[in-house]
Every structure is written in structure tokens, then in C-alpha cells.
Please model this.
Amino acid sequence: MKNLLEVSNLHVYFETPAGLVRANNGLDLQLEAGGSLGIMGESGCGKTVLVYTLLGLQQPGKIMNGSILFKGRELVNLPEAELNNIRGRQIALIPQNQSTALNPLLKVGEQISEIETALKIPDTGLDNTKHLLAELGLGDIHSVEHILKSYPHQLSGGMRQRVLTAMALLAEPDLLVADEPTTALDASTRTTALNILKKSSSKTSLLVISHDLPALKILCPKLAVMYAGRVVEYSDTESLMENPRHPYSRMLMKYQQSAGFLNMPLTGFESRDLLGDDKGCSFALFCPQATAICLKEIPQEVCLESGRVVCHLYTRNGVQTC
Ligand SMILES: Nc1ncnc2c1ncn2[C@@H]1O[C@H](COP(=O)(O)OP(=O)(O)OP(=O)(O)O)[C@@H](O)[C@H]1O
Ligand SMILES: [Mg+2]
Model:
């Protein structure tokens, strides 16, 4: 199947008083048209930076190198006016924090009208939105009317989640990106959020950033594991969960099984680890299987039966590099 999104060798750096932060550092990923891809990796590994870079909103980060092909079109260095046509219309985002993503001073209906105007969606007197919200399980038209007349603080977390999803789906985007859609939700709101995304996946391709493995298993047939700004393993979700190949993925899956959710640094990795010399494998210092080469040479991608892994373990074993 043709790729909807192809990110290659993406480098996004931030200049900070402490030095250069390599938030995305040679990142590769692909998403098939109509497919759903999950991305997991511990806090600070560059997931949200990737999301905003896809939308052309990475500043003050700078794209130092790499390519983002969306529907075959290069997004890196695309003029702002053209990015504007893609943002929200073709690539839409459900942002990381649903409790702060809505304007507290405007009623939900007013915010939706603003989006319709900004995205030049024909004004249907909110009919499309009402239909979408009802479809997303916010009850009959009467309760939907009530939601549109409410301020965000008058809604529950689950309701706000549905409103944000409806906003993101308004323009019928080709790609819906959900950044940690289940984090900080209680069990029933989480189930609602999952159902919403599952439903949405029949209309749009999904890129789901999450620490929530069971959620990723439900939503995404493909999974990428990120570490220190790179995708270190990519595979069928089930294969990656059952038989992780990268030592970091193994650690991550083991941790998930024992702790359930990854809400704290697993390796003690911090943003300062994205600073400094860019040599060797970023995981080498924490890796139980590291050898001398891991400290010296940046590993290349290696093809395996069900996916790809970026680790010297596999090149040493004579497996062909991709
Ligand atoms: N505006 C910024 N200025 C400087 N550094 C930044 C900026 N935005 C992000 N970073 C750095 O980029 C790195 C990646 O951040 P990012 O928000 O992408 O992490 P994440 O993987 O989404 O983490 P989390 O799981 O906690 O959401 C971090 O080290 C962060 O400090
Ligand atoms: Mg994030």
C-alpha cells in the first residue's frame, strides 16, 4: 500500500542555554494510507516535537536535516501559506493536554465556529459538528446543543476529549494525530477515548502517541519505539509486544508488563542526554548488551522478518542492513 506519511532522517534541534538539544535525531517512520501507527517511548524522547514538526509548528526548534513526505509532497521548508492549507485540514491534531487545549473564555460552539472559519469549512450552522458529536457518543441532538452552549470547564474530561476529536475531524483530515489521548484519564473516560479513536480510524489514518500499551494494541496494527529522538524499532504491534528485538524495547515491554503504564523515566534518561556529542548508540550506557562498538558508532537500521531495528546486535550477527 502507498505511504501517506514518510519521515526520513529528520533532525530537529533546539538551541538552549545548556547547549543543543537533539529532540529528533535521525528519525525515520512510515505510515500507510488508511493505516494506524502507534509511537511509544519514554518522556522527553521527542514524540511531541515530532508531532509539531509534522504540523510545521516546531519553532523555536529548527529542522536541521531530513524529509517529511505527506501524500508524496515535501513538507520541510514548505511556505507558510501552503502549510496552512495542510494544518487542520489534511493533518489534524488532538493535543496532549485536553484540559488546557480549549479556550476557557469561549463557549464550545463559538470555538467550533472559529475553527470552521479558519479552515474555510462551509458554515452549516454547526450541523456537521452536532452530527459528529452525536456520532462520537455525546448523546442526542438535545444534549449536543447543550454542550455547544457550555464553557469548557462545565464539561467532563471525556466530553472535552470528544469535543477536541470532533474539532479535529471537522475538515475530514487524511491524518489524525493523537498525542497521548488516554493519559490522565480515568478508566471509563479512557474507554470512551479509545472508542472514539477506533471509530475515527474508519475515516482517517491515525498516528497515536501513547505510553498505554493496551490502547496501542487496540488502535494500531503497527508500532514504533522511540529512544532519544530516533525510532529504534518498528514492527507489527503484536510482534513487537511479544518479541521485542531492540534491548530498549525489551526493557520497555518488561516495564510495561510489571508497572502497567510508563509515566516515569525508564532509563533515567533526561533531556540533558539529548545534549553533548552525537556519537555511538544513545542507549549504549543503559544497555545490558552493549559492546565497544555501541559507544563509538551510530547504529544503522536493519531489516528483520516483521519490521526494522536500529541496533549493532543485529549488524554484528551478519544480518543485512536495510
Ligand atoms: N521549546 C523548546 N525549547 C527547548 N527544548 C525543547 C522545547 N520543546 C521541546 N524541547 C525538548 O525536546 C525534547 C523532547 O521533548 P518532547 O516534548 O517531544 O518529549 P515527549 O517525548 O513528547 O515527552 P512526554 O512523554 O513527556 O510528552 C525534550 O528534551 C524537551 O526538553
Ligand atoms: Mg509529549
The chain has two domains: 3-90+171-316, 101-170. The longest strand covers residues 3-16.
